Amino acid sequence: MKRERKREIWDFEHELPEGGGGGQKLILGLDGGATNTICICMPVIPFTLNHSPPVYARAVAGCSNHNSVGETAARETLEQVMAEALSKSRCSRSAVRAVCLAVAGVNHPTDQQRILDWLSDIFPNDVEYFVENDAVAALASGTMGKLHGCVLIAGTGTIAYGYTEDGREARASGAGPILGDWGSGYGIAAKALTAVIRAYDGRGSETMLTNTILHELQLSSPDELIGWTYADPSWARIATLVPIVVSCAEVGDQVANDILLHAVQELASSVKAVVHRLGLCGKDGKDTFPLVMVGNVLEASSGWDIGKEVISCIAKDFPGTHLVRPKVEPAVGAALLAWNYLIEQYQHELSGVGYD
């Protein structure tokens, strides 16, 4: 059944002209998070990094974090989204020069190796592979493929990741909701649901989160939240309640406000931990370093701006923090990582050519 599924995914290649890409070589860049997986296809051609690179096709699928949906479902999603991107480009796997998968849940070399082994069964032998955590692609999206600085992702999940110019790296958070990613969308929404239950049974303060969440979910009593929550406790589903928490905080609800303040402290502490460990701030704590911020939790709101509050908190300790809002999406950042490697490899080969 599994092999049949794979054949169906790649059936479009039989309809392409011989060569499957007209001699053009491509890079696949993939960003896989807890909610969506995005794959883009771009050519291996020179371009100016001051401008967005050319993107031939873009495909979107669901979650590809194996910790959330399981390894089989994650692989099926990854393969499907790569096939769709190539199909939209009217190119086959033979046109692929490099693949960079940046996926949430890649936390250990064994995670990387499993995916590398799997990719080698899909693509031709001459393809270069890069497998990273999704935070690496997010950083590259702000630095146009250069791995230096720190990135903070806060969407359904959260992670802080940093790189130095000499290749050292560090991370904080990103271990999932059970292990305390409280600044994430899931963490914020879970605290809001908990606050509603606590207010209902008398352990916590009254909050407008109760009526607002019940109205949004079309429930009549906090008792019904128990059934709603455990009917499908997926991280992304719970995280959709974040805008309600923000709206309640904006009109003065203290419980909602405290939840967001706690999230700010958690997110800022993750960045501070990475910066300290890597020394990105220099010996005096004042050196400039880029901080790339990605994720819908960090997007500006008219009233309660979580991202702005996080930056303010970090800048108190590290005044050299340089905020970067990416001009390209993380999937493009993943492709740029591979593109930079190929360009460096090509230049190295040229420099090694001798002339008589």
Automatic annotation (TrEMBL):
SUPFAM superfamilies linked to this entry: Actin-like ATPase domain
GO molecular function: N-acetylglucosamine kinase activity
Documented EC number(s): 2.7.1.59
Source organism superkingdom: Eukaryota
One Pfam family this sequence matches: BcrAD_BadFG
Gene3D superfamilies for the chain: 3.30.420.40
Top-tier EC class: transferase
Domain ATPase BadF/BadG/BcrA/BcrD type, residue spans: 28-338
UniProt record similarity statement: Belongs to the eukaryotic-type N-acetylglucosamine kinase family.
Protein name per the record: N-acetyl-D-glucosamine kinase
Organism name: Deinandra increscens subsp. villosa
Upper taxonomic lineage: Eukaryota, Viridiplantae, Streptophyta, Embryophyta, Tracheophyta
